[in-house]
Design brief:
Blueprint: E1 13-17, H1 24-36, E2 40-43, H2 51-65, E3 66-73, H3 75-79, H4 81-97, E4 103-107, E5 123-124, H5 129-142, H6 156-164, E6 169-170, E7 174-177, E8 180-185, E9 189-195, H7 201-208, E10 215-218, E11 221-224, H8 228-234, E12 241-248, H9 249-255, H10 264-285, E13 289-292, E14 297-300, E15 311-316, E16 319-324, E17 326-329, E18 332-343, E19 349-362, E20 365-369, H11 373-383, H12 389-404, E21 409-413, E22 419-423, E23 428-431, E24 434-435
Parallel strand pairs: 1-2, 1-3, 3-4, 4-5
Antiparallel strand pairs: 6-24, 7-23, 8-19, 8-22, 9-11, 9-12, 10-11, 13-14, 14-18, 15-16, 17-18, 18-19, 19-20, 21-22
């Protein structure tokens, strides 16, 4: 009796779906960096075969060996018949693997949603490839995509392709600047307070909104880094509190608390609300203006920090540079700002999102903020589209120097005696290889 054996092929390959030649520069930049992080990558840019043989190899890779498909997204790319066919195959693979996140869109240019991928969350490479790469690496790690950090293998095909097209890859390390601010120090203990008598949520909320301490309300009490004496002083005229329990912060972040009946996800949301409130209070204390976007508040520079058209000087290893944080374009004033989002993986940090807030021009200065989100979005697309990575990087570094006052840290008070301390310089990552990015230009005004 013959027993037919089926060879099981492990899925360890990241398949990049792209348009040729529109996405070649981007893939040439991205693929070796993914391989340098331990991932196995497939992109048809390395295939020298033509016709059916090439198409069969591509299809077999996607159907049998791909663990994820990275989909380059732009209107041109998504209109390509070959890319549409790959999306259809990937949707079948996603159902077969029961992996709704099998397709990971990479927004390399702004694009209109299409059927099948319109609701998928994309990784944003618009404005900064480096920040997009860090977000992508974080997403791949969170989804447990297999990689081998001990046997890094960068395909020689990338170098040979560049040699044929006069694009060089250098066997030298490259430092990539992220949009993360590492939490350098954090209070180790957080307390849950409850009133010793009847006390309503409104009084608790009103007191916690003062500048003495930040807190997160839960059930009949609140979580805070404040001490009992600091809380009693705050509520001197409104009621007494007792420390219901003390907890190690890292334990709550990792596991939640059965004692407080808070699941891990809900606990992280409560701690994040404390982090965000501490950031917002610090920004207000620095005199920054604020504007509310859909997902988060943005804090931006104004005339009290720097006049329009004047560059802000900042320093880095190797020299002093300057960047514009406020200027006039198309008859509107644009002002640079930041939204901050707390994260816990792979270590506590704040992820920064660059924002541009537009206002009217009145007597040579910023007038009223334009409150229409639609107009704000249209202005960002038209005015900021020409800004390149060095421009965005320079604005971020200038903003952080303005925030920190040239200090190496940014201290966010959470109580009269405790602070969350952030490094004022963004986290840097080191890539074993360097490639020339065609999008790189000098600082723009």
């Amino acid at each position: 009796m013959n027993t037919k054996q089926t060879k099981v092929v492990s899925r360890e390959t990241i398949f990049i779906s792209k348009a040729t030649p529109e996405d070649d520069d981007f893939v040439l930049w991205l693929a070796p960096r993914l391989e340098a992080s331990g991932y196995r990558v497939y992109a048809d840019i390395l295939s020298l075969q033509a016709g059916d043989r090439w198409r069969r190899e591509l299809t077999a890779t996607l159907q049998e060996r791909a663990v994820k498909m990275l989909l380059c997204c732009s209107d041109i790319t998504l209109s390509k018949q070959g890319v549409q066919e790959e999306i259809g195959i990937a949707e079948d693979v996603a159902r077969e693997l029961n992996d709704p996140r099998f397709i990971i869109p990479l927004r390399i240019r702004r694009y209109k949603k299409i059927f099948g991928i319109g609701e998928l969350h994309y990784v944003d490479f618009v404005g900064s490839w480096e920040r997009g790469l860090q977000d992508l690496l974080e997403s791949l790690a969170n989804q447990s995509v297999p990689r081998n950090e001990n046997q890094i293998s960068i395909s020689p095909g990338w170098k040979s392709y560049r040699a044929r097209h006069a694009v060089q890859i250098e066997e030298e390390p490259e430092v990539l600047t992220s949009n993360w601010l590492r939490v350098a120090e954090i209070p180790s203990v957080i307390r849950y307070f409850q009133p010793s008598g009847a006390l309503g949520h409104e009084l608790i909320r009103a007191a916690s909104q003062s500048r003495r301490f930040v807190s997160a309300i839960h059930q009949h009490g609140f979580l805070s880094f404040a001490t009992l004496d600091e809380v009693q002083e705050q509520f001197a005229d409104g009621g007494k509190f007792v420390v219901h329990s003390e907890h190690h912060l890292q334990d709550l972040i990792q596991s939640g608390s059965r004692f407080l009946n808070i699941q891990r996800h809900d606990m992280r949301n409560l701690i994040s609300s404390i982090f965000r409130e501490a950031w917002e209070r610090y920004c207000r204390g620095r005199g920054l203006s604020e504007y509310s976007f859909a997902s988060q508040k943005c804090f931006f520079v104004n005339k009290d920090h720097i006049p329009i058209r004047r560059k802000f000087t900042w320093q880095r290893i190797g020299g002093i540079r300057s960047s514009m944080l406020r200027n006039v374009s198309s008859g509107r004033v644009w002002q640079y700002g930041i939204s901050a989002f707390p994260y816990y993986w792979p270590y506590p940090h704040f992820k920064l999102k660059a924002r541009i807030v537009f206002a009217t021009l009145a007597d040579g200065e910023a007038g009223e903020i334009i409150h229409s989100h639609r107009i704000q979005h249209r202005l960002r697309r038209s005015i900021c589209k020409a800004w390149r990575n060095p421009t965005w990087h320079g604005r971020l570094m200038a903003f952080l120097m303005l925030m920190s006052g040239e200090s190496a840290t940014i201290d966010l008070p959470v109580s009269p005696s405790e602070s969350i301390r952030l490094d004022s310089d963004p986290v840097t990552f080191r890539s074993p290889v360097t490639t020339s990015a065609p999008e790189a230009h000098e600082e723009e005004g």
